[in-house]
Amino acid sequence: MPDGSYDFAVVGAGIAGASLAAELSAHAKVLVLEAEDAPGYHATGRSAAFWDECYGGPGVVPLTLASGQYLRDGGFLTPRGAVHLARDQDLAALSEFEQTFADTGVTIERLTREQIAAKVPHVRDEWRHAVWEPACADIDVAGLHQHYLKIMRQRSVDLACCARVAKLKRYPDTGLWAVTLESGETYGAERVVNAAGAWADALALAGGVKPLGIAPMRRTVAQLRVSPEAPDDLPLVLDINGGFYFKPENGRLWLSPHDEIPSEPCDAAPEEIDVARAIERFEAVVDWQIEHVERRWAGLRSFAPDRLPVYGYDAEVPGFYWFAGQGGFGIQTAPAAARLAAQELLGLSADAMTSGIERARYAPQRFVTTDA
Q1: What's the rounded Cα separation, in Å, for the pair 210 and 313?
Q2: pTM score > 0.90 for this model?
Q3: Fewer beta carbons within 10 Å, N or C terminal of the chain?
Q4: What pLDDT does 13 receive?
């Protein structure tokens, strides 16, 4: 077996793996293994790029709010605002939304019909109700990812691309892990961190670890040229029932049907039916002409069964750490999530960023069932 040449072997170099490796590297020797030929090829590189206090639900809010200051200080956020639209028949859903996020620390307020029309030009008459999120912002996903990759380089983290893990083996006598790639190359590490995104359960199986049921879901986005041109100050516009969202991007419009289609871990591709569904829903919201669908793409968002992220040591296999199940909120929560996990892995105390986060809420142990 190889010696324990690394303190941590982090599998995955998307925003999850990169942010955690950057945090760990101040105190440990870290190896990052990326299956693709460059970091961020999958979910990180296909994000719709917004930071929304309510995104992911109330269980994710503490991570989002704790990450906000880091992102603002780093210049990664640009104010945008978000409007959650509703019709008369959606008033119950609108009220439920407000009740769900009451006392969570997020800032939301009702808009009048006149305020809605001012924020969303050419909105159709039936969309008469809305909740406004003033803190919503665009997030520089590439910039944030590169920020963490730069920290990794500065702190001499070893990054190996085209390094798909084939097998993980733990040696009980030493507690060390042998991490073997499909190429046959093997590395040694004291602990393995599963930041493999859509492949998180598959990686667990490769190490004899029981999967947690982390399920990849396909999300589709299309870039449209519309007339009139999407105004630069248009907020993020979402359906209170989760049927669509759209936002401006450099004179174009990014539109999603807010789909969640179960998928195997793969290089996700958009389906024409999902793009058509998005356009149909968009045309029911605003009186804009779609001139051209310029491009379309899809990414996989991975969810644990309870839709909360999973941060923590496996309940049964020592030295195997889960850092997965971040859904679509992994980028906006990356600073706090990485700091929280690094503190646990390194045995450090909570700091100002993480002191208000309940670690047990995200631990894998929540999935352990005991026989009566």
Answers
A1: 12
A2: yes
A3: C
A4: 96
- Measured over the CA atoms of residue 355, residue 361, residue 362 and residue 368, the dihedral's sign is positive
Asked if 197 and 203 count as a contact pair (C-beta separation under 8 A), the reply is: no
Cα distances from 356 to residues 18, 105, 359, in angstroms, run: 23, 12, 9
User: Mean of the per-residue pLDDT values for the chain?
Assistant: 95
| Residue pLDDT, tens place only, 77-111 | 999 999 999 999 999 999 999 999 999 999 999 99
Tell me the CA end-to-end span of the chain in Å, nearest whole number: 41
Q: Which residues of 209-243 are buried (b: 16+ CB within 10 A; e: fewer)?
A: beebebbbbbbbbbbbebeeebeeebbbbbbbbeb
Lowest-confidence range among 45-49, 66-70, 81-85, 195-199? 45-49
Give tens-digit pLDDT for 156-172. Answer: 999 999 999 999 999 99
Paired with 324 in beta bridges are 310
